[in-house]
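Q: Given only this backbone (178 positions), what sequence would you predict?
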């Protein structure tokens, strides 16, 4: 299915849970093949529609920034696996560097890039599993709408979907016109 055909297609919670299982299977396959830390890239896409022109732009921007990071650091990337499904755009990278160093670089991108708040850059170590921001002493991600810790807003569903989507569009439009 091409990216344009998926635009505007609503997905269910069951679809998202199945996508999470497929992502875990891809991660295990890359661990088995390469034995390296993985960078899992997903997008912050609230609501039932996961693939839009905006989400494609946000993922393309993330991929470009990661390519720049890998060139700048010289970290070998023996595997790059983009995934385009109705449940969202994703990518997996096997990166030949220490997992904690990779997590630090990923968190810096999330925090410093104008679109970084729309990226979910998870680092998985073949031995330790996922590395959290808190394990590195980093502050939690902030809510797109109010700036409070995002976890609390997401769990309580503090902001209506249209408010979240408007905040995302505003951020993307500001980046495009800078």
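A: Predicted residues:
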């Amino acid at each position: 299915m091409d990216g344009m055909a998926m635009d505007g297609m609503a997905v269910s919670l069951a679809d998202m849970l199945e996508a999470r299982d497929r992502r875990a299977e891809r991660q295990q396959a890359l661990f088995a093949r390469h034995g390296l830390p993985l960078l899992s890239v997903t997008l912050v896409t609230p609501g039932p529609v996961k693939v839009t022109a905006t989400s494609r732009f946000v993922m393309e921007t993330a991929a470009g920034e990661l390519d720049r990071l890998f060139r700048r650091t010289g970290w070998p990337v023996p595997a790059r696996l983009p995934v385009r499904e109705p449940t969202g755009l994703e990518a997996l990278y096997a990166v030949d560097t220490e997992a904690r160093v990779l997590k630090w670089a990923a968190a810096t991108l999330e925090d410093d890039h104008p679109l970084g708040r729309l990226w979910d850059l998870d680092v998985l170590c073949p031995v330790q599993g996922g590395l959290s921001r808190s394990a590195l002493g980093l502050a939690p991600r902030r809510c797109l709408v109010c700036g409070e810790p995002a976890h609390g807003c997401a769990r309580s569903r503090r902001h209506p979907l249209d408010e979240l989507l408007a905040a995302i569009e505003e951020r993307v439009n500001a980046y495009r016109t800078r």
